[in-house]
Amino acid sequence: MEITLTFGIAVGGIFLSLALFKIRHRIRQFLKAFLLWTNKHFVYPPLLRRHRYLGPWSRADVLLQSVYFAMNVLCLIYKVSSISKAGLRAANLSLINLIPLLSGPSFNVLADLLGISLSKFRRFHRLAGVMSFVLLAFHVITVVVSRTSFSLHVPENLWGLIGGSSLCLLMLSLPLLRELSYEVFIRTHQALAVLAAYSIWRHLVSQPLLPRIYIYIFAGICLLTFLLQYGFIIWRNKAVGRSFPRASITHMNDTVKIRLTLSRPLKVKAGQHIGLWTPVSFWSFWQSHPFVVTSWSEGEQSALDLFIEPRQGFTQKLLEYSKSNRPPRLALFSGPHGTSAPVGEYETVLMVASGFGIAAQLSYLRQLIYGYNACKTRTRRVHLVWQLETLDIGIAVESLLNDALADDTLDEGYILSISIYIQSGKADRVPFGRRAIVYSGTADLTTILQEEAEGKYIKRVQEETEERGGMLVMVSGTDQLRDQLRDEVRGYLDDKVSLWELEYQPA
Ligand SMILES: Cc1cc2nc3c(=O)[nH]c(=O)nc-3n(C[C@H](O)[C@H](O)[C@H](O)COP(=O)(O)OP(=O)(O)OC[C@H]3O[C@@H](n4cnc5c(N)ncnc54)[C@H](O)[C@@H]3O)c2cc1C
Questions:
Q1: Highest-confidence range of 168-172, 370-374, 415-419, 449-453, by mean pLDDT?
Q2: Same domain flag for 163 and 84
């Protein structure tokens, strides 16, 4: 490049940077306004409400999915000269869409690498899976239409058929298997995915490097994430001279509590979860389950607390084990996984949980109380609203809640309120543990949200001039509760209110 041109670009760059720096506040304002507009018109309004297998989909979800679909179609038809060429292109595109699906042994690691939540990654996984399947179906149709014979004695054809069938089985068997047994579903899914990848490679073995390279890329990424995941697991579970982690499993009112004593101290952000493996029965040898860490510390923790709802499988075995009063059990874990909400940036934090969803909120409660006492947070009001069917879970959680409130030296209930609503309760406005008040019935979320959004419980020195801070509504509850809150929060977007759905949502 001409030296004078380089000089010109450098001078122009400096001028542009200075000009942008000068208007940086306007740019920030514009971005904020744009984000608000997007939230109002695309992210919060639902286009499709929740159904058994579909939804809820917001306008943004549908738009993004359509763009993704359109990009694939464009790549498929752009300057394609014949239907058989389009078929070949569809096969390549199908492979490219498969790469992110097959890039790691577990969702957690991939979601962590991308810095997105598990639920978002799951959605993306499903979407890419459907896209890949549709493209593969197109490839098969074009092959069938354009070829006179499809002999299965030709290895290329045979492996193509096996690969296609395994992808087909992957798609069709899933909802059914998942309902039957999660473990059978996940292992079948993984086995079929490996079979599909291997068959596709065999199908392409006599082809030029270009389509095969996608398989090599996927294998490379998969190996890397596999090594990363298991490397971290080994490192975190065994410190030199220390024993493996031990799980002390106890129960109360048919709930399970675990204290996991670690081999090596670990920093866990509020809201993060671990994948727990502990051999409490024969089948549990092959299983690892995600649980949110309910304890929190600003530094590293030497023991992690978990609060668990006994379901039908592994968690039921945990309950049985806890009742047999046996010594702490060997336990291994992966993680910590997942994202953490930036709670400290908000003036008000409204935490809404139903049932065991409280597990996902406890670490945030601790973090907020610590942050307030240490003047490390902007938060001036925290309200935990907990909806229960009976007080049984409440009693089981009381000690965890009190632990979370151990540093609570806050003023007379203005900063922190805990409201517990018991569906089948009779007593109203009864104090419970430290700080909490028990009400009977269902929480009136409309009024609670309105009062908190108005800042009714925040003491202000200069009522008129002070600018209101934002409010974060964090929810870990039933589908119905989440849908209701999403609708309610929509009405307060202009008041800087936003919703954060936590990674664990109880059934
Ligand atoms: C990020 C995250 C954090 C969680 N945190 C907690 C928590 O703190 N406390 C708590 O009680 N529960 C938590 N759960 C739910 C908990 O992982 C499941 O209830 C548990 O795995 C069920 O095990 P089971 O064998 O007894 O289930 P089953 O009775 O066989 O099935 C019950 C339900 O759990 C689902 N499930 C089963 N195994 C898994 C698995 N390995 N991964 C994901 N889902 C599974 C099944 O699809 C089914 O819907 C969390 C889930 C996720 C995704």
A1: 449-453
A2: yes
Task: Convert the pLDDT of each residue in 33-63 to its tens digit.
Answer: 999 999 999 999 988 888 887 888 999 999 9
Q: Which atom of ligand 1 is nearest to the CA of 337?
A: 1
CATH number of the domain that 254 lies in?
A: 2.40.30.10
Is there a contact between 506 and 397 (Cβ–Cβ < 8 Å)?
no
Of 283, 308, 337, the one marking the end of a domain is 337
Q: Is there a single domain that holds both residue 154 and residue 255?
A: no
The residue out of 181, 208, 234 marking a domain boundary is 234
* Closest ligand 1 atom to 309 CA: 11
**Cα 498 to ligand 1 centroid, rounded to whole Å:** 27
For residues 349 and 491, state if they share a domain.
Answer: yes
pLDDT of residue 368: 92
Q: What ligand 1 atom has the least distance to the C-alpha of 178?
A: 47
For residue 372, CA distances in Å to 261, 343, 411 come to 28, 11, 11
Locate the ligand 1 atom nearest the alpha carbon of residue 179 and give its number: 47
The ipTM assigned to this model is 0.98
3-state helix, strand, coil in the chain (%, to 5): 50, 20, 30
> Do 199 and 283 have their domain in common?
no
Q: Give the percent of the chain with pLDDT over 90.
A: 46
CA–centroid distance, 314 to ligand 1, in Å, is 9
Among 249, 277, 311, which is best to mutate for testing ligand 1, by the most ligand atoms less than 8 A from CB? 311
Q: How far away, in angstroms, is 290 Cα from ligand 1 center? A: 6
Question: 262: domain range?
Answer: 246-337
Q: Is 300 within a domain? A: yes
Whether the pLDDT of residue 414 is over 70: the answer is: no
